[in-house]
Task: structure prediction
Amino acid sequence: MQRDADSDDARWVSVRRITALGEPLLELQPAGGEIRLAFGGDVANCLACLARILGAGGPELSLVSALGDSGYSEWLRERLRREGIRLSEPPLTGEPGLYGLPLDPVRRPGFSYWRARSAASEFLRSADPLQLEALLGDPDVLVVTGITLALCSAASFRHLCQWIDRHRIRCRIVFDVNYRARLWRDEGLARERIGRLEALAEVIATGTEDERALWGCADEAAVMRRLGRPRVECVIRGGAAGSWVGTGERWRHIPTVPVRALDTAGAGDSHLAGYLAARIRGRARAESAAYANQVAALIVAQRGAAPREGLTFPPLPAQMSGSTS
Result:
């Protein structure tokens, strides 16, 4: 088992290219009676945090999506490029998707979305095998989320699973459950697709709220029973309760330092980024989950899902020799 863990860690530190498939969004941020334009979307948030943590010497970060051909499309492209994210797009017309943070989080919580006809939604509904092969390329890590799956058609979802089957011998699949009920036609379809990706993934990230909503898991122990299987690395986010990390029947609870949360948008995305960054830098699972807690704490203390201008993340902890758990 020790040899397997050492070999697994060696694969992490050899990562040179990370690709994410999904939809970056324009983000409307209410602030002092005005509305500020920023960017968000789960895969974009995750890659932006990864870029800030790993810096210029880190792996190449690519985002496969479609932003359209408008002025707002170009604004969003430029913002992502400034973060160090390479875009891989088909030539589609249209607009990027848009969402707004709540104007009154107490009286009317929840986000507002305008994404049904976005260029990314059109691409994810229509993507064929040749497009996916050309755009996804040959990454060491592919990040996919439940939101990405919800935007796929039956055909494009099948094509994505086929791509994963062909490439997963050398490409590690990282899947974030990220369940958003309003994006799905019904819970049955969500369980079917999410379950399929979980079966293909080597790393699964999820949250206790999503698990309760989709699978009826009453607590973290139920999530561990649902997901725990050998050779699949799992991270469970529990908000103020911290996180749990493990594989098979071996789990550890990683507490977090309580912070005053201003805005929870992007918390899970940043947590995943912190975990992946630490693993890529050779840290063990428990160390990586602890670092992920720190990264997420910084994001929930700001307005907006993506890291704000000038935000820096703490340096990665010193590597602990001989630790793999």
Observations:
- The chain has a mean pLDDT of 92.
- The longest helix spans residues 285-300.
